[in-house]
Specification:
The protein has 178 residues and is mostly beta strands. The protein has one domain: Beta Barrel (Porin). The longest helix is centred in the N-terminal third of the chain and has 6 residues.
Length: 178
């Protein structure tokens, strides 16, 4: 999908750019318990702008989290949520037409290659492999050309009963037209 989208020169695509985001990675079990993991997150996207407010974004990213010991220290347990995965897939973004500060939402589908560990009172999962994820995000594009952004991105993993995400900042590099 990524290679094919880079080769398409249809009139439908108005602009192309590369977006890079980096931030704090987080992992949470889908159980209603206060357990989390934290770490590092980085992602790159090949942005195809269809209209001023709609983008198609193939992406690749990396998230590395380990368990936070705060909950375990308070309650004397060994619950955990951790993820070490490569993320690939595609997303669509819809942005509000507001200059300088434009809010947006994203949704898509992708795959995660890596290992996930979720240990709570009702879940005991320690799996490695390839897992389906559903990415979604909310954020703000900033600046006169909307080259900066602040986002909260999440990736729901039903197979491992875990949600991973990030609080990230990003920058877009426009690509020259032919």
């Amino acid at each position: 999908m990524i290679v094919a989208s880079m080769q398409v020169d249809a009139q439908l695509v108005k602009d192309k750019s590369i977006n890079v985001a980096i931030g704090l990675g987080l992992s949470y079990p889908t159980d209603a318990i206060d357990v989390s993991g934290s770490g590092f997150y980085v992602q790159g996207e090949y942005v195809n702008t269809l209209k001023k407010r709609i983008d198609i974004r193939p992406y690749a990213g990396l998230i590395l989290t380990k368990k936070n010991s705060d909950y375990n220290d308070r309650h004397g347990t060994d619950f955990k949520s951790s993820a070490n995965a490569l993320l690939i897939g595609g997303k669509a973004r819809i942005m509000a037409p507001i200059p300088w500060v434009a809010p947006y939402v994203e949704i898509g589908i992708g795959a995660s290659f890596g290992s996930f560990e979720t240990l709570t009172p009702v879940t005991n999962i320690d799996k490695s492999g390839v897992f389906l994820h559903i990415p979604w995000a909310i954020g703000l594009k900033l600046g006169p050309n909307r080259t900066y952004d602040i986002s909260f991105s999440y990736y729901e993993h039903p197979a491992v009963k875990q949600s991973i995400g990030a609080a990230a900042i990003g920058f877009s590099f426009p690509l020259k037209s032919k």
